[in-house]
Amino acid sequence: MSTTVTSKGQVTIPKSMRNRLGIEPGSAVTFDLELDGRVVLRKVDATYPASRFESLRGCAGPGLSTDEIMAMTRGDS
Question: Alpha-carbon distance 73 to 15, whole Å?
Fold first, then answer.
């Protein structure tokens, strides 16, 4: 999806992106420059997990003990 920069340096954020990010008139946004040259647009008051795996933290149970895993590996009943 692309847009054109005006003579004043302005761009229009496409409607699908505004809807997805919850950007409405008066919303504050930030532009972050990544090391590879990409520019990332973020809504200022939005909260994002520290990583894409953050939302999964704590979902797994305590799991098997080492003895239980070893018994399964050996084929013990």
Answer: 55
30, β-bridge pairs: 42
Residue 29 · residue 39 · CB < 8 Å? no
- Structural domain span for residue 21: 15-74
Measured distance CA(11)–CA(23) in Å, rounded: 14
The 8 Å CB, 24+ separation contacts for 63-67 are none
Mean pLDDT of the chain: 86
The string of pLDDT tens digits covering residues 31-60 is: 999 999 999 998 888 666 567 777 777 777
Name the domain count of the chain.
1
With a threshold of 0.90, does the pTM exceed it? no
Residue 1 maps to a domain: no
- Radius of gyration of the chain, Cα coordinates, nearest whole angstrom: 23
